[in-house]
Amino acid sequence: MLRTHTCGELRIQHQNQIVTLCGWVQKSRDLGGMTFIDLRDRYGITQLAFNMETNAVLCEQARKCGREFVLQVTGKVIERSSKNTNLPTGEIEIEVTSLTILNTANTPPFTIEEQTDGGDDLRMKYRYLDLRRASVRANLQLRHQMAQQTRLYLDGKDFIEVETPVLIKSTPEGARDFVVPSRMNPGEFYALPQSPQTFKQLLMVSGFDRYYQVVKCFRDEDLRADRQPEFTQIDCEMSFVEQEDVLNTFEGLVKHLFKQVKGIDITELPRMTYADAMKYYGSDKPDTRFDMKFVELNAVVKGKNFKVFDDAALVVGICAKGCAEYTRKQLDELTDFVKRPQIGATGLVYARINGDGSIKSSVDKFYDETALKEWAAAFNAEPGDLLLILAGEATKTRKALNELRLEMGARLGLRDKNTFSCLWVVDFPLLEFNEDENRYFAMHHPFTAPKPEDVKLLDNFDTLGNVRANAYDMVINGVEVGGGSVRIYDKTMQARMFEILGFTKEEAQHQFGFLMNAFEFGAPPHAGIAFGFDRLCSLFGGADSIRDFIAFPKNNSGRDMMIDAPSTIDVKQLKELSIELKS
Amino acid sequence: MLRTHTCGELRIQHQNQIVTLCGWVQKSRDLGGMTFIDLRDRYGITQLAFNMETNAVLCEQARKCGREFVLQVTGKVIERSSKNTNLPTGEIEIEVTSLTILNTANTPPFTIEEQTDGGDDLRMKYRYLDLRRASVRANLQLRHQMAQQTRLYLDGKDFIEVETPVLIKSTPEGARDFVVPSRMNPGEFYALPQSPQTFKQLLMVSGFDRYYQVVKCFRDEDLRADRQPEFTQIDCEMSFVEQEDVLNTFEGLVKHLFKQVKGIDITELPRMTYADAMKYYGSDKPDTRFDMKFVELNAVVKGKNFKVFDDAALVVGICAKGCAEYTRKQLDELTDFVKRPQIGATGLVYARINGDGSIKSSVDKFYDETALKEWAAAFNAEPGDLLLILAGEATKTRKALNELRLEMGARLGLRDKNTFSCLWVVDFPLLEFNEDENRYFAMHHPFTAPKPEDVKLLDNFDTLGNVRANAYDMVINGVEVGGGSVRIYDKTMQARMFEILGFTKEEAQHQFGFLMNAFEFGAPPHAGIAFGFDRLCSLFGGADSIRDFIAFPKNNSGRDMMIDAPSTIDVKQLKELSIELKS
Q1: Could you give the number of structural domains in chain A?
Q2: Which of A264, A483, B16, B50 lies most in the core, judged by the most C-beta atoms within 10 Å?
Q3: Which of A61, A82, A103 is the last residue of a domain?
Q4: Which residues of A touch B207 (CB under 8 A)?
Q5: Which ipTM did the prediction report?
């Protein structure tokens, strides 16, 4: 080893020991008689001291070491005269007696500090320098810990980690596959998996009983702000279980991770039906860090000649505790917020419950004090509260109110990144109608089982939308971090599902024949789940973006700015792959 | 849960408990009054008993359950009248009181038994059924354990698992890349990594200090018998270390795995230079489960008018202990063996050391008893031994003798799959001369550092072949399971290496610019290693082929027979990717 200790481990009890450290120059201060260097490695920072009086040559040498030079130093651990209580090593410094410059460094294009002066593009291009920043490194250390703890938990529950193939078969269904031309099979292509779904189901058919994998998946979609073309899943499947068993097993995982990684006890992990989530939060991934449930007002507000409410399919609102004092300006801001095109409400009705119990609304022309008291009662509102009400087509209005609720939660400081509220959303619809294509799509995927009690509804096109699935999502702080379902394991039901989804028999056979065939040979009842690992890590890290929890992320054009990929390839290589570029 | 216990856990102490089991019908025996079913799951086999007298309806139902039907049964644990000591559950059986057929099964295309009647192709096509066989499942359970123990060990040594990208940049150097057309960047391609080499080096530049990953890699090569287009590596890198530190750390890993997974203490892990490996074993991956070292005979055999030896650059042999009694037929077999085209020796000279000490050779015409005694002395041979000698061009002869040595080891039973001999081979040459292209190639890869004491040899084309690298391979039982090197971390040396390897400055910049640039910003001394995880698992499993240690392997044409990939894709999809098939 080129060192005896790391830059994070020396303490006052090491005093007088002769040590050798290696690391990077974080910063250097020349105080005339003394020169100090903060030497950094993954484990911490240790102060090096060079004295002009005792060793001028060495001190001069130290002064020449620029930021990010790589040094090896030997010296004595001594007590600092002025201690730094912010640093675990802050009680000591190294009185350096020998210094080797292991490598020099050009001046980095941005500062390697928490508040860096580097813009996104620059930091992506020099990702290897951005990764030197303590917070980015901490994110990846958190990720490591999450992966390790996930494996420990699942290993302890008899799950076997099985690697499924990356070079698989393309399926036209769903989002776009990345494909890989096969040199050995000209004209043919592999596809990269969007998930190991069918393989994990085949492992259940094989009797593996409990499978997991922390696995890369791929999706060639137009990238939204926080999507990556390659992403990581915690992918799991279990046999001979019911939905309840899956929920118990994986809330166990979530509790384990919070306990081991964050030191947080998650005591409650409530369950909410999809129907309730939509009704009370206007979202299938409600942020339950705060209450502010939707209250439907149709029964209370209709028939008072207020056309907007009378014409609306749904009038629904939230009660913002203690916001009665909101100014006109603040209320206008909220109105503007809900009227933004991406939210799409036509207006916002409010009512303040004043301190004296009187109520003042934006629609006093139509609603008298008695009527407004009924509103307040519906909300269980108290003096000081502010009612915010939207009206219109039901689904759209709920969606808009969900946005307003989240905005109010943020304004009221109810969405603290270090508070965690976990929730199972269950009983998702099996199918989702697509108006454009006039057909149903699988809400989860084509392998999800309908609830046994709803199977009869599959017989009628008009009731297909009412069929519920044994499908579930894990939602934390309003973010869907995982989802899964009980699977179909009966070949007749699976064939029927493909038919409902508009597959011809031939298409179903061509694409999923191997799974349908496998179901002929004794498939067990099984169910599973997958967690978005990048997202889970960013949530644990209290961050909004997944990008800083990925060592080498791609930008919104799917480009790795550091290595400059994708890139052109040789004509010779194309020829070997039996493809050519389309002009 | 659909069960209270697994099929592997019930014992005599569970007697009289009412239990519910789920599993597959392994086999069924109808003895008239009684029907017995062996119910199988991942955990074991439990015998179910159905009695015609006590419950005829149930017994009839049981008789109808074919092989591989999926059952759920409830009943009482009772002591068996005739116990099966080969089965952990062999002391008990279940007196079944209720039976649910969870799924039926067609007759499998081959028997789900250790000695199956299924051929390779059939078993690949129905891999999900082959995976039901206990030995195949055991292989994958071993693999799981290996991965988990690898992570535990490295985690304990402060290694951080970092996921490196799968969609990277194509490099013309080395074996062929799989490429992935980018839809968003028409005409451009990602490549799948042959290894995360440059990324792990960048992580060292980032200060990650210790990195590991159990990671899929890809190589579009013509597949030899035991290669897969996608394979898994244990990939590691460390900073501020010397070769010795890497060797110590990873022989620790190997010892840990043997101890935890196999219960074997590896006490010795010797080191051998590449030069010695070639001299004494004719191979850079000697099987050291047995001795039988090469003995060079030039000094002893020359000048006796035996033209074959006199003309040979090298005369070299092995001593097969106790084989003096080999028959003429056996010796002819060995001669035929070494004369096979893939081995390519022109003949085999032998000498038997008889029990009475007399020596009889195939070249008695040229060598008298005194001369032959000198041979025997060179080998330290004893009465009863057989000397086998080859002659010719040095490298080719060593290679041929290596094959003969391995053959003799096998014939003498010295290559037991349950005996393990580990070895580091060190001091590999840095460069390898390619006669066809009249240039040097990197023996390991272009990032490997020359030994400091050999750097001066880089200045002269004629001495390039003599430069040794700080490169090392881990060899177990004659199989190279891992290899690595101390890396270049100096940008000038790296540029020089690219130059020696025939890269123009532009090519080097185009392909590895990001790494060369990274070296401008403070690269630490670093070194690493990668283990072939599939191979390591098969070795631990005592198997020759890696295929049965991979859940869903591809065949020698790179085809997944089960899902029938690769396959053609839609013209529409090709169009979106801006490529077309070359006619």
Answers
A1: 4
A2: B50
A3: A103
A4: 23-24, 40-42, 131-132, 137
A5: 0.94
